[in-house]
């Protein structure tokens, strides 16, 4: 990716491009005959970012993840994690302009799976897989120190507030829907909505549409009080990291040894990820029988919610498919045939200049819409399945006597460790 250039140079370069386009437009007419032997050079495409530099980015990501995991689990250093996150913010955020990122790589992976003509780069695949692999073994250390989107929010947490549990759980379901939509739109070649609506990429690049800059600033201001709002309410990659982290063999802990039940840490997490001890009343026979009945009910609801969600998703495919430019254009021409002659409509003119017939456009739109119908089933079924499992988990209680971080939701930031008065035991004792 090309580095940022000063505004004046950028404007001058843009002016040259406009002049070049104008001159190229004039060449629709016969070229003048030159007697000087001048030969007009052929335009060349700028070289992409060096493959060596792309692999260097992967090496930096791997080093950051390794160091963050060591700092969170072995060293137990909140300060170390903070400095690593600042480095990631500077390097992956401002220097690399927020691209490539593991969050956006979801779309590259989805498109490569469903479109045989698209080949994903090995670096994009590694950016997608490495944080998930580390989450499977060490928890969400990617969120703690490697993600620039999380780092820029984490630095501005000033006075975090805690929302009621039912509100947090409701908001926490939004990333699941966002993940499903992102995969569907990427798989059908419609759009990369994660990248298009990244609230912080405009800040990283010091440029972008006003609406996106405003949205990014709004997230940062909101994050002063509701910590990491994008991570907790929208991040689709966080859904995958959460699932992997729940099975992590090693995970950051609040206390380095036996807990002394001081309760100093119980309100230390600004992200509300510390789980309280499970009270003994859950083991009372009456409560256990009630929870068992609810558990059986939710088990039975899972296939029903999956089928219902799939049916709703398939019924919504007509509206969803309009996101694809070909479907949108076909419907536009069908409903407004006179637009074929509208020279002011850039979409219509671009289609006509592509050399395709209107019949071909309609045929392609029909094929794309059929893909959305199948994808709508998958999207709705996925959302219904996750909803059913989430309901089931509300009545599943694991024995817990201490205050512990929730493996799936914990960002492994290390804040809670500073509240624990227990010292690490000396080795050999």
Strand order of the largest sheet: 1-2
Radius of gyration: 26 Å
Helix content: 55-70%
How many discrete domains? 2
The profile of the biggest β sheet is: 2 strands, antiparallel
Structural class: mainly alpha
**Mean pLDDT, as a whole number?**
84
Helical segment count: 19
Total number of beta strands: 2
What is the chain-wise order of helices and strands?
HHHHHHHHHHHHHHEHHHHHE
Distance between the termini: 52 Å
Our estimate of the beta-strand percent is under 5%
Low-confidence stretches: 1-32, 43-47
Please state the overall shape, judged from the principal axes of the Cα atoms: globular
Please, what is the oligomeric state? single chain
Q: Topology, pairings included?
A:
Layout: H1 7-26, H2 51-75, H3 78-95, H4 105-114, H5 122-138, H6 141-146, H7 148-154, H8 165-171, H9 174-187, H10 193-196, H11 201-204, H12 210-223, H13 229-233, H14 236-245, E1 274-275, H15 285-315, H16 317-321, H17 325-335, H18 346-353, H19 358-393, E2 404-405
Antiparallel strand pairs: 1-2
Helix pairs in contact: 2-3, 2-5, 3-7, 4-5, 4-9, 5-14, 9-14, 9-19, 15-19, 17-19
């Amino acid at each position: 990716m090309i580095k940022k250039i000063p505004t004046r140079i950028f404007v001058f370069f843009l002016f040259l491009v406009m002049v070049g386009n104008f001159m190229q437009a004039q060449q629709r007419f016969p070229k003048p005959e030159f007697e000087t032997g001048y030969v007009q050079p052929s335009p060349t495409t700028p070289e992409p970012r060096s493959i060596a530099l792309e692999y260097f980015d992967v090496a930096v990501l791997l080093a950051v993840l390794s160091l963050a995991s060591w700092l969170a689990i072995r060293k137990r250093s909140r300060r170390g994690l903070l400095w690593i996150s600042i480095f990631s913010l500077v390097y992956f955020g401002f220097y690399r302009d927020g691209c490539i990122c593991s969050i956006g790589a979801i779309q590259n992976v989805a498109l490569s799976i469903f479109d045989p003509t698209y080949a994903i780069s090995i670096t994009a695949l590694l950016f997608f897989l490495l944080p998930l692999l580390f989450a499977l073994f060490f928890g969400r250390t990617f969120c703690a120190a490697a993600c620039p989107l999380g780092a820029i929010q984490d630095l501005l947490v000033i006075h975090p507030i805690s929302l009621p549990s039912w509100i947090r759980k409701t908001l926490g379901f939004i990333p699941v829907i966002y993940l499903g939509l992102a995969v569907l739109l990427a798989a059908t070649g419609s759009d990369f909505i994660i990248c298009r609506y990244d609230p912080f990429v405009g800040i990283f690049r010091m440029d972008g549409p006003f609406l996106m800059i405003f949205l990014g600033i709004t997230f940062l201001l909101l994050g002063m009080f509701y910590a990491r709002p994008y991570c907790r309410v929208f991040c689709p990659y966080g859904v995958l990291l959460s699932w992997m982290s729940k099975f992590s063999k090693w995970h950051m802990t609040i206390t380095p040894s036996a807990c002394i039940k001081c309760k100093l840490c119980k309100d230390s997490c600004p992200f509300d990820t510390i789980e309280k001890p499970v009270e003994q009343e859950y083991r009372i026979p009456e409560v256990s029988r009630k929870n068992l009945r609810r558990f059986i009910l939710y088990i039975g609801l899972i296939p029903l919610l999956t089928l219902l969600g799939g049916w709703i998703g398939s019924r919504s495919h007509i509206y969803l498919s309009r996101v694809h430019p070909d479907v949108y254009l076909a419907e536009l021409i069908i409903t407004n045939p006179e637009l074929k002659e509208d020279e002011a409509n850039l979409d219509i003119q671009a289609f006509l200049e592509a050399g395709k017939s209107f019949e071909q456009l309609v045929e392609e739109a029909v094929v794309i819409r059929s893909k959305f119908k199948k994808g709508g089933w998958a999207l709705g079924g996925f959302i219904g399945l996750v909803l059913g499992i989430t309901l089931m988990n509300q009545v599943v209680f694991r024995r817990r006597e201490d205050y512990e971080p929730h493996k799936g939701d914990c960002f492994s930031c290390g804040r809670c460790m500073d509240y624990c008065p227990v010292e690490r035991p000396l080795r050999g004792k």
